[in-house]
């Protein structure tokens, strides 16, 4: 495996002190050039193609979400990409001009220009050398850092198991470096080597990574997978704390049950993060103790863990005081009060679909978007296989549906990951932004 281990740590060390700790729309990297604090104009949905439905291809679907628009709540652009490869997650480049979108099966990465005209994205580059250059497959998390894209992967090209790593490309789409998720640390701490999400706290110079499962599992039928005891043992049970400047793992946390999305509190002065474990249905808090040592502990149950509601996505409020949690199996969107993050309390729940996956909220917390698809072979069958994008308003007491788009009826496919864009005047520039390289990917 080829690496360039000196380049990235030097770049990050140089630029890290300039970075602001403000994140974008509550769940993105702190290194983005701008954030949308007002009304978002467009929502992009990375969508899995379905054989025999429309063109059958994976695609980027753009929806007008500005209530002042005549096309409010309508699909205004559909941009297919060749084939189907388990379209999954996306992430902006640090200048927010480009949207990187990955596929978990064939490991292709598609780079879209969403800065020139966000209402009409354009495909400007396809990256297909991830397995050959890094040895890893299943690009999942796209986490922009200055001049680079840090990619969290789910599997490896050798045996398609859960052992994996982090991969870095520059903004032009060129491979830079690879960093394996550890299986052990000096001193004897054991880890599983699995990956999933990435989250950085620049002020503390720490990065957290979480863990899921490999290609052999995530491409299987969910029912058959859950009936296979050996396969069910191949899920991640740890998180890793890294020295971000050095890109060096420093500590392993025991978090059984596949900890997925990681969210740092965005409130000034807060230095804690939270995650949810899918199989054990728990919220886990990561923060420093009185000695300054980073610790983790489970702080709340999500629904009835014995029924495996399967928490799949979380969205933290901009003030760090609440957390939305979507659970796939029971189709519920739950709200937890995080006023005391060491003791979260569920204060609301609503069935928002027969199956739900991603949840995204606006910066002001007044709008909550929900999509339906988890993975092609994990989605429910028959009438329960709803595929949708829904917008709910939140007034502090009740989620009220504003509109819904039936992705099956519209012959679009399976709606998965979402990202907001706005017209240029709506973007608010960050002060002290740590942007090193504003050149976009090669066209």
TrEMBL record:
Signal sequence region: 1-23
Catalytic activity entry: methanethiol + O2 + H2O = hydrogen sulfide + formaldehyde + H2O2 + H(+)
Family that this chain belongs to: Belongs to the selenium-binding protein family.
SUPFAM superfamilies assigned: 3-carboxy-cis,cis-mucoante lactonizing enzyme (SSF75011)
Species per Swiss-Prot/TrEMBL record: Pseudoduganella chitinolytica
Protein name: Methanethiol oxidase
Alphabetic keyword roster: Signal
Pfam families: SBP56 (PF05694)
Upper classification of the organism: Bacteria, Pseudomonadati, Pseudomonadota, Betaproteobacteria, Burkholderiales
Source species, domain of life: Bacteria
UniProt pathway: Organosulfur degradation
Gene3D superfamilies noted in UniProt: YVTN repeat-like/Quinoprotein amine dehydrogenase
Family matches, as InterPro entries: Se-bd, WD40/YVTN_repeat-like_dom_sf
EC number: 1.8.3.4
């Amino acid at each position: 495996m080829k690496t360039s281990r000196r380049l990235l740590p030097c770049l990050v060390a140089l630029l890290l002190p300039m970075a602001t700790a403000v994140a974008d729309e509550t769940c993105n990297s702190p290194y983005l050039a701008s954030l949308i604090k007002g009304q978002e104009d467009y929502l992009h949905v990375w969508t899995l193609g379905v054989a025999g439905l429309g063109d059958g291809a994976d695609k980027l679907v753009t929806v007008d979400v500005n209530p002042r628009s005549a096309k409010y709540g309508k699909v205004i652009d559909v941009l297919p990409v060749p084939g189907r490869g388990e379209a999954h997650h996306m992430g902006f480049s640090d200048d927010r001009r480009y949207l990187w979108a990955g596929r978990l099966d064939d490991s292709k990465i598609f780079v879209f220009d969403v800065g020139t005209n966000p209402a009409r994205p354009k495909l400007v580059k396809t990256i297909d050398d991830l397995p050959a250059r890094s040895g890893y497959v299943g690009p999942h998390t796209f986490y922009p850092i200055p001049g680079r894209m840090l990619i969290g992967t789910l599997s490896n090209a050798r045996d398609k198991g859960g052992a994996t790593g982090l991969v870095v490309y520059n903004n032009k789409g060129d491979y830079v470096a690879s960093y394996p998720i550890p299986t052990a640390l000096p001193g004897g701490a054991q880890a599983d080597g699995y990956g999933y999400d990435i989250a950085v706290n620049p002020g503390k110079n720490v990065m957290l990574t979480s863990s899921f499962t490999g290609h052999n599992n995530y491409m299987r039928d969910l029912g058959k997978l859950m009936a296979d005891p050996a396969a069910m043992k191949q899920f991640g049970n740890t998180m890793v704390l890294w020295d971000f400047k050095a890109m060096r793992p420093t500590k392993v946390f025991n978090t059984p049950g596949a900890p997925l999305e990681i969210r740092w509190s965005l409130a000034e002065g807060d230095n804690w993060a939270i995650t949810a474990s899918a199989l054990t249905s728990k919220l886990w808090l990561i923060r420093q103790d009185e000695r300054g040592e980073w610790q983790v502990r489970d702080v709340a149950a999500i629904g009835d863990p014995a029924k495996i509601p399967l928490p799949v996505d979380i969205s933290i409020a901009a003030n760090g005081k609440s957390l939305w949690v979507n659970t796939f199996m029971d189709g519920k969107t739950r709200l937890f009060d995080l006023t005391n993050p060491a003791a979260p309390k569920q204060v609301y729940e609503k069935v928002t679909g027969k199956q739900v996956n991603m949840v995204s909220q606006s910066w002001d917390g007044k709008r909550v978007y929900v999509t339906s698809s988890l993975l092609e072979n994990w989605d429910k069958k028959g009438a329960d296989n709803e595929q949708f994008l829904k917008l709910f308003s939140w007034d502090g007491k009740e989620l009220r549906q504003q509109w819904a788009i039936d992705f099956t009826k519209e012959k679009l496919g399976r709606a998965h990951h979402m990202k907001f864009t706005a017209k240029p005047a709506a973007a608010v520039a960050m002060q002290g932004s740590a942007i090193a390289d504003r050149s976009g990917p090669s066209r």
